[in-house]
Amino acid sequence: MSLLKHIIKLLFFTVYCIVIFILIPLSAQETNDSTAVKTDSTDTKTTVSGLTQSSRKIEGLFTFFQDTVNGSVQMLINNNQLNKEYIHFVHTLDGVVDVGHFRGAYKTSKIFEIRKYFNRLEFVSINTAYYFDPENPLSRAESANINDAVLATLAIVTTDDETGAMLLKVDDMFLSERLYQIKPAPNPETKPGARFTLGSLNKEKCQYIALNNYPLNSDVVIKYVYDNPTPMNRGGPGITDPRTVHMVIQHSFIAVPENDYDPRYDDPRVGYFMTQVTDLTSTSNTPYRDLIHRWNLVKKEPSTPISEPVDPIVFWIENTTPKEFRPAVKEGVLRWNKAFRSAGFKNAIQVKIQSDVAEWDAGDIRYNVLRWTSSPRPPFGGYGPSFVNPRSGQILGADVMLEFVYFTNRVKYDKLYDDVYEKQNWTEHCFAGEYLYQANQFGFTSATISSYSEEVKKRIVNESLIRLVLHEVGHTLGLNHNFKSSYLHNNEIVHKKGITEEM
């Protein structure tokens, strides 16, 4: 009996060992499988694909990812985009005239680089105002006391194992004034309440309006919201509630053109807009290498006296343009071809009309657009800005902004009763449109008193519009004001149509 019990115990022990032997590997496998799943899950949360799986990918010059749940944006930077120059161009798509921001206002065009510093990337604005002759030993000290600006520094969230591309969270950079100062600095001489001022930027209210991406430029459109709970000045009639105002700003990141453009230096005898550059290795008392602003026009047939350009300057008449004004606007632009013909070009400038169902937006910097607005408080009659490559002076794009009130009988009443216009003199525009408006008002009044026909009144508008478009397009071509030409003809000759009408 004792022997039988012993055998039974031994049998149970043997079976127990066999079961344990079988179960332990299974348990280990389950543990390993569980660990593997956990590891895979952890890896997913730290990879580019994992961190952007709920985002919409927007590819172009730079790649963006916008989260489809909360709207936040991430940016992917490739290694070949580091330490490479790009152009950062800022302009206002919609704004508050009282603080110098209005639709179509061009703000800044600067060179920047993206640089890596350990686990961070820096967005650095480059100082392009100085030149050093590379053959001069002083060029070895070209960075001495010349300050580049680190506009933003962002932590690298993760790096792609295959490509090395770096992912950044960019909300802190874009939904702030790090890239560009939007809110004007206060003037210490201005009395409190004398002028409308912006409150504090409210990041929670700021939002991305659009992320438009193309092979040679990436456009980030942002609505910036400013809050001031106790405003001392309510601003103009275009402001609904002075406690909270916003403006829509577009940041454009542009690849520096790779072409055979030949920069030209400024000659003070000819009035061009220019980018100032000083040669710090020159012994001249005028050590200037200022670059004039001009388009890159190249003849298709260089050996011929007159040739079409390889790439003409194309202007689009925006579909906001009143239809009765479109022929005059087109004529005002095309008249510049007479001047270009003297320079050896035919059809240098072309004009097209934006369709009412066009899918592209007039704010797209790839298009040069003649745009119209009808503002409660117009900041100008006409405004013709352009933006350039700061390294060469090559004009990369331009617009012409035109205000409807300057070609109507509508009186700008705020001009009659206060000095608001004088307060706005610090905004960047010329006064050609204002002078034309005054002339038109005088012309309309004289025509009415003299019982002239409606046809005469239409001609006043038509000729003044052609003149204003001619003027503003001249600015977009890089030309400054030519005051000397005002004395080309005396008062008697200037009224002879046979002499002046073709100009």
From TrEMBL:
<dbReference type="Pfam" id="PF16313">
    <property type="entry name" value="DUF4953"/>
</dbReference>
<keyword id="KW-0812">Transmembrane</keyword>
<dbReference type="InterPro" id="IPR032534">
    <property type="entry name" value="EcxA_zinc-bd"/>
</dbReference>
<dbReference type="InterPro" id="IPR034032">
    <property type="entry name" value="Zn_MMP-like_bac"/>
</dbReference>
<feature type="domain" description="EcxA zinc-binding">
    <location>
        <begin position="455"/>
        <end position="501"/>
    </location>
</feature>
<feature type="transmembrane region" description="Helical">
    <location>
        <begin position="7"/>
        <end position="28"/>
    </location>
</feature>
<dbReference type="Pfam" id="PF17148">
    <property type="entry name" value="DUF5117"/>
</dbReference>
<feature type="domain" description="DUF5117">
    <location>
        <begin position="127"/>
        <end position="300"/>
    </location>
</feature>
<protein>
    <recommendedName>
        <fullName>DUF5117 domain-containing protein</fullName>
    </recommendedName>
</protein>
<keyword id="KW-0472">Membrane</keyword>
<keyword id="KW-1133">Transmembrane helix</keyword>
<dbReference type="InterPro" id="IPR033413">
    <property type="entry name" value="DUF5117"/>
</dbReference>
